[in-house]
Each structure stands twice: as structure tokens, then as C-alpha cells.
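Worked Example 4.2. Consider the chain below.
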Amino acid sequence: MKILITAGPTWIKLDSVRILTTIFTGNTGAYCAKYFKDRGARVTLLVNPHCLAVNRKIHLRGIKIIPFHYFEEFKTRITRELKQSHFDAIIHSAAVSDYTFTRAFAGKIPSGKSALTLHLKPSQKIITLMRLRAPDSILVQFKLEIKRKGLIEKAYRSLKGNKSDFVVANALEDLKTGYKAFLLDRSKRCIALDSKKALCDILYRIILNTRTREKR
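Applying the procedure from the previous section yields the following C-alpha cells:
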């Protein structure tokens, strides 16, 4: 079983010392990487190195690690990896930036300004590129919303729009008290999950069963 996992935030450069990023730590991706590696899978982890320090208790020995920091690095490295290798599944848990600055400033923006207006534009949808490059891989995406209300519908629309096979839906309000997620497939079947282990257990079974059917 060959698995590609993405984890952590993609940084967006504002100037030579400042970035736009998210609060996410890459913990789910790191956990999944160790889980699949421990079960004999060949795992490639595309991760922001900032997350490795945060998740240092998760031992990632035996896993191929490809680092990235910035959005463009992420795009370049995942494109190269998907061009060079075929994966049975892609677990895309990275918090890819939805927006980028219309321009990055050279040097350092001086401090002391009374006001500073920054303009953002939508980033390229990397998951679309991933599906194009890996049409036969099982593609698992993640969808986060602030509230539980409407989460399932929004996650399913995202799955259909991105042509993913599965979507893991989270509400930030749920994550404040522990791990909770919902796994949806293309038929909109929904499974509630209460731990990262439960998530990995079901993904492992799905990928293993799919490989078994393909070999018959």
C-alpha cells in the first residue's frame, strides 16, 4: 500500500519576514502517517517542517518526508511527486491557503504606520491539480467549518466539486472539546468519528479493500 499524506499550513509571504498562515498544526496528517506506516504501508508525508516540532511525540521514522513552507513550494513538490509516483491513496489534510496577497513586498514593511491596507485574491485550488495528476488514486480531502450547522451539506458540495472520493468534515466548535469528524463518500453516506484512530481505521479498511478488488 502506497500512501501520500499532506499536513500543516502553507505559508503566504507578505514581505521578507512576515507571513499569512493558519492555526493548524498538522497533527492529523502526522498521526495518519504513523498509523499507516505502522501497518506496513509505504508513506510519503508532505509537511511543513514547523509541524514536526509541534508533533515531535509522533515518531515518523521510516516515512519519506518532503518539506515545504510556502504555498508555491507545496504546489511544486506535490506536482512533482504525483508525476513521479503512483499512490493508492492521497490523504490531503494540509491546510492549504485559500487566499494569497496580490503582491508580496520586497524587504520589510516599515513598522509605525498608522494604517496598512492589504489586498487578497483567491489561491489556485491545489486539490483540483491533485485529482488531475492522480485520477486513479483514492482522494480523501478535509473540510473545516466554524459551526456544525450546515457542515455536512457544505462538505458534500466540496467533495462533488473537487471530484474527491471521501471528505472528512470537521466543525471548529467540536474540536474544542476533543476530536470529532464526519466521513462522507460520493453517495453521501455519513459516518461519525470520535477519534483520529477511528478515522484511520476506516480509511485503512477502505483503501485495503479497494486494492484487493482491483487485483482480482
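The chain has a mean pLDDT of 94. The longest strand covers residues 138-145. Compare this with Example 4.1 before moving on.
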